[in-house]
Design a protein that fits this description.
Layout lengths: L1 H14 L26 H6 L4 H17 L13 E4 H11 L8 E9 L2 E9 H5 L8 H9 L3 E13 L2 E11 L2 E2 L2 H16 L13 E7 L2 E6 L6
Antiparallel strand pairs: 1-8, 2-3, 3-4, 4-5, 5-6, 7-8
Length: 231
């Protein structure tokens, strides 16, 4: 789950100039996340209060992630599927986004449909650009020249589950009313995300241990589980 979520959210943040990981766990477990770019300041998140339903849904996602990340050496052939819902993922973002997202990124959210995941957030490009002062980092410079103030950023990705893992394809990135040019999308992926996160979108992202298939559906992602070949 994480590969997908981290990649999508990380991309959105990168297209808004971010380079921070979605979750602190292995990229492979993400897939919901699947699923996951975008964002909220840490101070805001830590000082906010949340209703019990949101907190419970956030904890539910954390518990399910622990199951997916289990290194059990003797998995059962009938391991039950793990289902993660949009509500659980978005609740986790509300509670914890400030722990891993950069300043300038606010109100992260995601939605899931068959074969597709959409991630969005409100990004203050002026605030965000000030957190990347490196003059050699061209992606933030290009984005800062193109976008100003707070814009709504939306990333749509296609997700296909294969025997070898999950294949992720960024289909569109929209900032405000403008669709980001394909050349800039490719530049961010190849020169910002892939080197920093050590993944290759030309290849399937590996499944977590004992996950055999990931199925995005309407409002949820299902992780089918069982013994893996060679495990």
């Amino acid at each position: 789950m994480k590969p997908v979520a981290n990649t999508i959210f990380a991309f959105a943040t990168a297209v808004s100039s971010s380079t921070t990981e979605l979750f602190p766990r292995p990229l492979a477990t993400a897939a919901l996340g699947v699923v996951l770019i975008v964002l909220c300041a840490a101070a805001e998140s830590r000082s906010a209060t949340f209703d019990q339903a949101t907190l419970a849904a956030s904890k539910s996602l954390e518990a399910k992630m622990q199951i997916l990340e289990s290194k059990d050496t003797q998995p059962s052939a009938s391991n039950p599927a793990v289902i993660i819902t949009e509500y659980e993922a978005n609740s986790y973002f509300k509670v914890h986004s400030g722990e891993f997202l950069p300043q300038g990124v606010h109100t992260p959210s995601m939605s899931v449909q068959p074969e597709h995941v959409t991630a969005s957030a409100d990004v203050n490009f002026d605030e965000l650009s000030r957190t990347y002062p490196n003059p050699n980092d061209m992606a933030p410079k290009i984005l800062a020249a193109m976008f100003h103030g707070t814009q709504h950023v939306t990333v749509v990705a296609k997700i296909q589950s294969e025997n070898a893992g999950v294949r992720l394809q960024i289909e569109s990135v929209v900032v405000g009313s403008m669709t980001v040019p394909g050349w800039l999308v490719d530049y961010v992926i190849q020169n910002v995300l892939q080197p920093r996160y050590n993944f290759d979108l030309s290849k399937p992202l590996p499944y977590p241990d004992h996950v055999t298939l990931i199925v995005p559906g309407a409002g949820q992602v299902t992780f089918l589980r069982g013994p893996r070949n060679g495990r």
